[in-house]
Amino acid sequence: MPNPDLQSICDAFDFAGRCRSAKRWGSGHINDTWAVETTDRRYLLQRLNPEVFPDPVAVMENIRRVTDHLAAKPTPGTPLSLVPSRAGEIFHRDAAGNTWRAYPFIERARSYDVVPDAAIAREGARTFGQFLKDLDDLPEPPLIEAIPGFHHTPGRYAEFSRACDEDPLGRAREVRVEAAFARDREEITGVLEAAREAGEMPVRVTHNDTKINNVLFDEATGEGVTVVDLDTVMPGVALYDFGDLVRTCVCPAAGDERDLTKVTVRPEIYDALVEGYTLAMGDLLTDTERRLMFFSATLITFETGLRFLTDYLRGDRYFRTSRARQNLDRARMKFELVRRLEQVDPS
Ligand code: ADP
Ligand code: GN1
Ligand code: MG
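Output (structure tokens, whole complex):
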């Protein structure tokens, strides 16, 4: 998007002090994020991606309920809290119809795009597990499904098939190898959904975007401070969260790495993730969930690869890119990781 008038956006929020500067922040693929510095403190300001979130009011209402609920829990750390607009709303709508929201910036904390060691993996998993546990008693009604079918892998596969058939940009020829890889694995897409339908995996309040860079860690102690990126918190199953965490932690390579020899699986990181997640979730996890933990990583990695490949076929309309073929490289990296996970699958 063109540079927005950030001064007037900042003026719309109930910030302490006068705005001094704003700089682009984070490495997310969806929203636009700035760290805003006022004369008093910092804030994290975000513009929601309108193509991804057609109902921003539902997203913000979910976030309000979740942050209020978490703020009342005794869990150590710093829970996220929304900064109200000067009009007293939980978001600000600008003249162009964009939805903006702000959080106090959590200082002396950091996120990791690539996990450096097992201790960070364990703590990240524990923090995500605790997040689910704390939301287990969120009062009715259920949160709104802000993106219907977000982790319905068979649905993601169907979208991929459609994109191959429609091939609006003539890119299908270029991805024949990847498409064949995907077709060979169609049968795994329904495994978690079948367990859910059989009642073996409860539908809970889940995060649904558990990339490791969505946890903030205390810079000094390495302890998990809070879970961020709450746009997709909605009803779901815990294994999609756990699997996505494994996807973004076990491999030391970047998400768009082109040298696929760097795409490896670090078993000690996987073990640390299981330890941290089960420590926090305790007896909330069912036997079926425990049994399918490793598989969930393969499945969600496959699903994410499908999503990147679909977006490449459709002209890179969903995931932000900074160079040509980046979504194809992201898809290839994910499929290579699927291959590696299949090789070490203990089941
Ligand atoms: P995106 O949806 O684009 O991934 P996020 O909400 O995850 O956006 O924010 C991007 C990055 O900004 C995060 O990975 C995290 O490092 C950082 N971040 C998010 N919220 C805060 C906050 N309240 N305080 C400090 N840093 C934050
Ligand atoms: C997106 O914005 P970010 O990078 O946290 C996406 C996730 C994908 C991820 C892949 C709302 O998350 O589902 O797994 O990219 N978020 C949405 O890197 O689609
Ligand atoms: Mg994020």
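Residues 118-342 form a domain with the Aminoglycoside 3'-phosphotransferase; Chain: A, domain 2 fold (CATH 3.90.1200.10).
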